[in-house]
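Q: Can I see a sequence and its folded structure?
A: Here is a first one.
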Amino acid sequence: MSVSFDGDEDTVFHGAKLALFIGANLITILRDDKPDIPWPAHWDLPGGGREGDETGAQCVLRETREELGLILPEAALSWGRLYWRKGRAFWFFAAQMPAETLPQIRFGSEGQRWEAISPREYLTRELAIPQFQSRLADYLAERG
């Protein structure tokens, strides 16, 4: 099945993030507590900066592999939208994997730890990154 994403894949973008649902839970990552990074000690989602001429999907899947050790097929991406922030474009995707995927997570070297939480908890978590809370809310509203 081919999924259509909202946005122009030819748009120059800065990075991509993923709302990764494993079973009913959302996978979150507590960022390192370093003053020289954006959003230190905040709860993030898998993803990061673009390398070379990657597509948005390639970028987010590579970052998810690096951060969580999960190799997801592009077909796992069920929703995507291009967002603009401070004059830069960023992809935001969603993917759903079965609960049996959870034990396969192998946390990488960036961040303090990961957690599987309810999407509602991420939306209300004080130290969640606000623009990702908003993008997750967009996805949940469209999904119904």
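Q: Show me another, different protein.
A: A second, unrelated one:
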Amino acid sequence: MEKMHYHAAGIDIGSRKVFVGLEDSPVRWFETFTSDLELLKDYLLEHQ
């Protein structure tokens, strides 16, 4: 199947955790506290 979107992430937002899937990387999760969401932002920026 041809890729339609490059540099995309699959994100599942729950009440206590946010799960993020990037291509060729294991799924990571972050809690929903502000400090953890800052780590999530840094993670996504690091992987463009």
